[in-house]
Amino acid sequence: MEQTQHAYFEGKIVPFGEAKVSVATHGLNYGTAAFGGMRGYWNAEQKKLFVFRPYDHFKRLLQSSRILAMDLPHTPESLTQITKDLLKLDGWQQDVYIRPLCYKADALIGVRLHDLHDEITIFAVPFGAYGKNEDGAHVTISSWRRIDDNVIPARGKISGAYANSALIKTDAARSGFDEALVLDNQGHVSEGTAMNVFIVRDGVLITPPVYENILEGITRRTVIELAKNELGLTVVERSIDRTETFVCEELFLTGTAAQVTVVAKVDHRPVGDGKMGPITAKLRDLFNDVVHGKVEKYNHWNVAVE
Ligand code: PMP
């Protein structure tokens, strides 16, 4: 099958190269845009691509768009259908990453949210592993702080806010770390640059609550559900102190790109014994099985492109 890339752009599916905006576009100049990111997993046995939790991803995207006072004529269902149509036309027979982006589309000068025209675009690219997964990542605690709900809401996946993630990621990478954890203005651990964080203490799974300047991650939600229902773990949503990352038994990151990524060291200190712990290993395997359609009970999360 020929694999041409397409994009949903200004209300229709077009060849990728035709999906272009002006340099004066509001969303590009002021960061007044919001995006999503979901994965499509290729199932070689069924010869089909399955998108993981698209309705939940689009629900969150539409919530981000509301924060930016956008009024898009779409529902999670209509956007899922467009994505299926797009992927069918692309014909990928491998794992993909799907990027929807809604943006203030006017080409004009003037920072605001109101009296502007909104658009949404969607495209997909082939995508494999994002970061280290086997050996465990080495993370640092960033000297940058997480954006606050009263600055730019972290709960919205707002394009402009990713300048914060980019500052954090580049300083961490240039210092030789794989990733960074960032503290909020209260000094609590919020999340990574594009992933949520979990620690294990005394066998209890702990993650910051949604009101502590985090993105409400779909992978986070998935892992919480799997931990409770399949592993019978106690999950507590509470603030995490910086030094808890030094004394916890296990630490891992979750995200669409990162999936379940084990963290082996925080600022040169080993997490637990420095190897993947049993809870992280179980959750990672279970998550992989679920997204690859191997756990019947959760197959409603996998939406086939057909
Ligand atoms: N936090 C941030 C800042 C992110 O950008 C992402 C990636 N979307 C996540 C967490 C993880 O969210 P999800 O599991 O929905 O991909």
Explain what you see.
The chain is α+β, with helices and mostly antiparallel strands. The protein has two domains: 6-126, Aminotransferase class 4, branched-chain amino acid transferase, N-terminal domain (D-amino Acid Aminotransferase, Chain A, domain 1), CATH 3.30.470.10; 137-291, D-amino Acid Aminotransferase, Chain A, domain 2 (Alpha-Beta Barrel). The chain is built from seven helices and 17 strands. The mean pLDDT is 96. Bound molecules: 4'-deoxy-4'-aminopyridoxal-5'-phosphate (PMP). 4'-deoxy-4'-aminopyridoxal-5'-phosphate binds next to helix 5 and strand 14.
Q: What is the number of helices?
A: 7
Termini distance?
A: 15 Å
CATH level-two architecture of the largest domain? Alpha-Beta Barrel
Look at the structure and name the CATH superfamily of the largest domain: D-amino Acid Aminotransferase, subunit A, domain 2
Give start-end ranges of low-pLDDT stretches: none
- Percent strand equals 25-35%
- Give helix and strand order, one letter per element, not per position: EEHEEEHHEEEHEEEEHEHEEEHE
**Overall shape:** globular
Mean pLDDT, as a whole number?
96
